[in-house]
Fold this sequence. Notes:
The protein is mainly alpha-helical.
Amino acid sequence: MTVVKRPNKRAEKAQETRRRIIQAATDLFVADGYGATNLQDVADRAGVAVQTIYFVFGNKRALLKELVDVTIAGDTEPVATMDRPWFTDAVAMRTAPDMLTEYVPGSSAVLARVAPIMRVLEAAAANDPEVSALWPQDEDLRYVVQRAAAEALVTKSGRRRGLTVDEAADLLYGILSPELYLLFVRDRGWSHDHWVKWAGQTLRTQLCT
C-alpha cells in the first residue's frame, strides 16, 4: 500500500509566518527606511509578536540579510542562482544570441525585484558598518554569476570573434547591473520592458557577430 505523506502543518505555518515577516519588513524598510523601522513596527504589520521575529531571525540585521537573499531569489527555496531554471535554460541554448534572448529577461527580473531595496541597503550600510559585513567582501557573488554566464556564452556559435571570457563577463556585469537598471527605470522613467529590449540589443551588439 502506498503511503501518502501528509503536509507538515507546523512547517507550513512557520514558513508562512516567515514570509509575512519578510514582506512586512520590505514594505516598511522601503517606505520609512531601515534605520527608522524597529522590529516592533515589523511585528505589528506582520501580525506576530516581536519575540517571534527575534526567535526566527535573531535581530534586525539578520532579517535584512534574509530579506535581500529572498528578494534576489524570488522565493524562499534554497536554490542557488546558477541552479535556477531561468539561468540553466539560458546557458543551455545553442547559440550566443539565443542565450542572450533567454538570459537578459531572467537577469532583468532579478534587477526589478532588487531595485526597490537598493536605497534601503545603501542607507543601512552607510549607517551601520555591521550591515556591510553581512555579505562577503572578498567575492562579488553577482560577478560570479555573470562570469559563469560568460564562460557558457563564449563557447557558442554566433559569439563575436575574439571575445574573451573576461570581456564578456565585464559587459554582462556592467550592463546587467542594478545601478544601470535604476538609472534608466527609476531615474529616467523607462518601463521594465523597454529596459529588457535595450539591454538585450546592446549586449547582442557587443557580444555577438
